[in-house]
């Protein structure tokens, strides 16, 4: 007999959870091992029940579905998260994927897509609509172009100043390392900020991470 896919249903509406449970268990290949009404509760249930897949709503009281997805992914238990939401906007997709979610199903099309989505993520694959796949590819392509264009604007010395600024060195320390004055370091930094159209040091750090000038620890 084929092993059932173990599910945790996470939504703050008990009636919706009951309907989903009846629908999914009626398929004969899923078993709902638990339910949760908040993001915090979903994390506790994952640790307790070790489901194969969490069916996660985004809009809930407390930390919400996005942060819950991030924390569940960070547990490293192998549990997959499939997001079920009313939000069709593409802006919600990238945060879901970055948080560790394995897919995205719209509530309005759950009757046709949910079963396939659960099967897909249970196999360790990602479930996305064709339009959202194109959106992700476009975003990553645009990010890659941004990196190339941004770095191309900077001289070799400016890249050095940027990298060391991102590492947390002061102007005096950078000057000593590069054999230039602190004032010259400040001039380079101001020029970098102007070229990249950045306003804060934190933005410099993020840019250095994205372009590989600074490696995440």
Low-confidence stretches: none
How many independent structural domains? 2
How would you name the CATH homologous superfamily of the largest domain? Answer: Response regulator
Which strand order does the major sheet show? 2-1-3-4-5
Helix content: 55-70%
* Main sheet makeup: 5 strands, parallel
CATH architectural type of the largest domain: 3-Layer(aba) Sandwich
Q: Distance between the terminal alpha carbons, to the nearest Å?
A: 46 Å
Using DSSP, what is the number of strands? 5
* Mean of all residue-level pLDDT scores: 83
Q: What does this molecule look like?
A:
Helix content is 56%, strand content 12%. By secondary structure, it is of the alpha/beta class. It folds into two domains: 5-129, 3-Layer(aba) Sandwich (Rossmann fold); 153-211, Arc Repressor Mutant, subunit A. It has a five-stranded parallel beta sheet with strand order 2-1-3-4-5, with helices on both faces. Helix 2 packs parallel to helix 3 and helix 8 packs across helix 9. The N and C termini lie far apart (46 Å).
């Amino acid at each position: 007999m084929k092993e059932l896919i173990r599910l945790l249903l996470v939504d703050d509406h008990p009636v919706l959870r009951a309907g989903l449970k009846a629908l999914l268990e009626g398929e004969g290949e899923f078993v709902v091992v638990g339910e949760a009404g908040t993001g915090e509760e979903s994390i506790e249930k994952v640790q307790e029940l070790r489901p194969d897949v969490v069916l996660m709503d985004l809009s809930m009281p407390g930390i919400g579905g996005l942060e819950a997805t991030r924390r569940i992914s960070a547990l490293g238990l192998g549990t997959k998260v499939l997001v079920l939401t009313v939000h069709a906007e593409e802006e919600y997709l990238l945060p879901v994927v970055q948080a560790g979610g394995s897919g995205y199903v719209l509530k309005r099309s759950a009757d046709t897509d949910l079963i396939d989505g659960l099967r897909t993520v249970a196999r360790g694959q990602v479930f996305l609509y064709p339009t959202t796949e194109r959106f992700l590819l476009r975003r990553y392509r645009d990010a890659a172009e941004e990196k190339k264009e941004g770095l191309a604007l900077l001289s070799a010395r400016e890249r050095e100043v940027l990298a060391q600024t991102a590492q947390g060195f002061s102007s005096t320390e950078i000057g000593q390392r590069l054999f230039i004055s602190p004032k010259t370091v400040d001039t380079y930094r101001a020029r970098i900020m102007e070229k990249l159209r950045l306003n804060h040091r934190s933005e410099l750090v993020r840019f250095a991470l994205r372009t590989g000038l600074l490696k995440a620890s």
